[in-house]
From TrEMBL:
InterPro entries associated with the record: ClpP/crotonase-like_dom_sf (IPR029045), Enoyl-CoA_hydra/iso (IPR001753), Enoyl-CoA_hydra_C (IPR014748), Mitochondrial_ECH-domain (IPR052377)
NCBIfam families: PRK08139.1
Top-level taxon: Bacteria
This protein's name: Enoyl-CoA hydratase domain-containing protein 3, mitochondrial
Pfam families named among the record's database cross-references: ECH_1
Molecular function per GO: enoyl-CoA hydratase activity
Native organism: Aquamicrobium zhengzhouense
Biological function: May play a role in fatty acid biosynthesis and insulin sensitivity.
This protein's record includes keyword S-adenosyl-L-methionine: no
Entry keywords, A to Z: Fatty acid metabolism, Lipid metabolism, Lyase, Transit peptide
Family per record: Belongs to the enoyl-CoA hydratase/isomerase family.
Length: 269
């Protein structure tokens, strides 16, 4: 079952497909992360975080560009402000940083569905998602250096996904990489033919949604927290998480179902 939220006035299409929430950037050709787009995405994610019926979130885009980054026309227009645009620049960078962190902190997995160009903050958006699947025609870049604006905020997400050498290559040259290279670098999970993109993404979503939502929540939070720790602290933390997870009803149900060779019935507790 698919339900579409009426959001005609905004740049984001919001749909429900069973337990998956699909957020489609719909302001082509660039699908830029304007202040309005960031606000719409933030609002949708905030609602999803508290909606027990949402198990997975997919971020997709309409048109040939996934997301070209920030709206440079919008930003340039604010140079006419009394402070030369500084307040607006601070506000939009803060809002964008909050959005990217909200994706990481969301207690449900977020999958990027990339059918075209993902550039600058658009590449940052891909890197911030838990999983990323693209077509073989998609390209990725952090080209700010070409216009005198180093992609410093995209760098944060990029450097946490791929090796430092690959990240610096993208940041220093500003050149596009193809989908095959992005997969080799570790920026995306899979490359599929264009006609199968949504089907494959939704298969991933369906598989994840079949798991215990509580276990997924515990695991996602633990993954990102331990990644910032040293080895000893990470094992101490993960061991405690494992014990707490074992004490949940869903863990008991899952183990019993496995032993009894039946399908588990998740309660989310």
């Amino acid at each position: 079952m698919t339900d579409k939220t009426d959001n005609a006035a905004g740049p984001l299409i919001i749909e429900r497909v069973e337990t998956t929430l699909r957020l489609t950037l719909a302001n082509p050709p660039a699908n830029a992360l304007s202040m309005a787009m960031i606000s719409e995405l933030q609002s949708a994610l905030d609602k999803a975080a508290n909606d027990r019926t949402v198990r997975v979130v997919v971020i997709a885009a309409a048109g040939k560009v996934f997301c070209a980054g920030h709206d440079l026309k919008e930003m340039t227009a604010h140079r006419a402000d009394a402070d030369g645009g500084k307040t607006f620049f601070e506000d939009i960078m803060k809002a964008c940083a909050k959005l990217m962190q909200s994706i990481v902190k969301l207690p449900k997995p977020v999958i990027a569905e990339i059918g075209g160009i993902a550039s600058a903050a658009g590449c940052q958006l891909v890197a911030s998602c838990d999983l990323a699947i693209s077509t073989d025609k998609a390209t990725f870049a952090t080209p700010g250096v070409n216009i005198g604006l180093f992609c410093s905020t995209p760098m944060v997400a990029l450097s946490r996904n791929i090796s430092h050498k690959h990240a610096m290559e993208m940041l220093l040259t500003g050149e596009q990489i193809d989908a095959s290279s992005a997969r080799e670098y570790g920026l995306i999970n899979r490359v599929v033919p264009e006609e199968y993109l949504t089907h494959v993404v939704m298969k991933y979503a369906e598989s994840i949604a079949s798991k215990s939502p509580l276990t997924i929540k515990i695991g996602k939070e633990a993954f990102y927290r331990q990644a910032e720790m040293n080895l000893t602290d990470a094992y101490d933390y993960a061991s405690n998480v494992m014990v707490e997870n074992m004490m949940t009803g869903d863990a008991n149900e899952g183990i019993c179902a496995f032993v009894e060779k039946r399908a588990p019935e998740w309660k989310g507790e």
